[in-house]
């Protein structure tokens, strides 16, 4: 076994191995198009993340791209089913592109530490998807006009991006495979995962979750990744309900399919000695 430094290996061999493991019924043209999306959008997006935003936690390029692939796999289960994939026909490309963009946002894009940086990322990724990078200037004055930023004969998106009206960003929508359309997270508040409006009679204040767009999207990603067997780390400021949300989800999992959770609590005051 030969070990390589992450920067020497790069992220592309990881993608090639992942593509090779996709179900055989997926059209070779669709696989090639998917690789083209990686080659087109990932290099410039990684450069943007490294130069123009602060990250919530340090990351490696391979880690972010692996998260992208895991998101795609977790959200494209219907494409892995031969019958459902065949039934989509020409719409399969729409689903593939939309899930890729969503996965890009919720892997590389969620590495941004602040709302201001997420707005910068929104502007960048929309410019990249619209093939307008030569005219784009980042907050730091960076230009994306080098050959490695915009590959020759790169693929393009044939599917619409998330809507941008009313100040909406790419973080405000999910792709609904049943509707073939982008749906705002706000449409799921009170009726989807992340906490409904019906509260149990014995609910205690400290265990209540007021449904918001944030709780809905976090619960959506949590559910998709857990069901796909992918590990995840939910991060955020203290007191924003992360622990309550995760515990509520874990305790609601079917007992005949999942092992009962064994929760170990940590806080900002937990020390190494206390853990031992």
Task: Report on this structure.
The chain is an all-alpha fold. It has two domains: 186 residues, Orthogonal Bundle (Cyclin A, domain 1); 88 residues, no CATH class. 43% of the residues lie in helices and 3% in strands. The chain has a two-stranded antiparallel sheet with strand order 1-2. The longest helix is centred in the N-terminal third of the chain and has 25 residues. 26% of the residues are buried. Pfam families: AAA_7, Dynein_AAA_lid. One of its GO terms (molecular function) is dynein intermediate chain binding. InterPro entries: DHC (IPR026983), Dynein_AAA5_ext (IPR041466), P-loop_NTPase (IPR027417).
Order of helices and strands: HHHHHHHEEHHH
What's the N-to-C terminus distance? 34 Å
Task: Name the beta content range.
Answer: under 5%
- Please name the CATH topology of the largest domain: Cyclin A, domain 1
Q: What structural class do the secondary elements suggest?
A: mainly alpha
Can you name the CATH architecture of the largest domain? Orthogonal Bundle
Helix proportion range: 40-55%
Mean pLDDT: 89
What layout of secondary structure does this protein have?
Blueprint: H1 6-9, H2 12-20, H3 28-52, H4 61-75, H5 82-88, H6 91-105, H7 115-129, E1 173-176, E2 181-184, H8 213-227, H9 242-251, H10 272-275
Antiparallel strand pairs: 1-2
Helix pairs in contact: 2-3, 3-6, 3-7, 4-6, 4-8
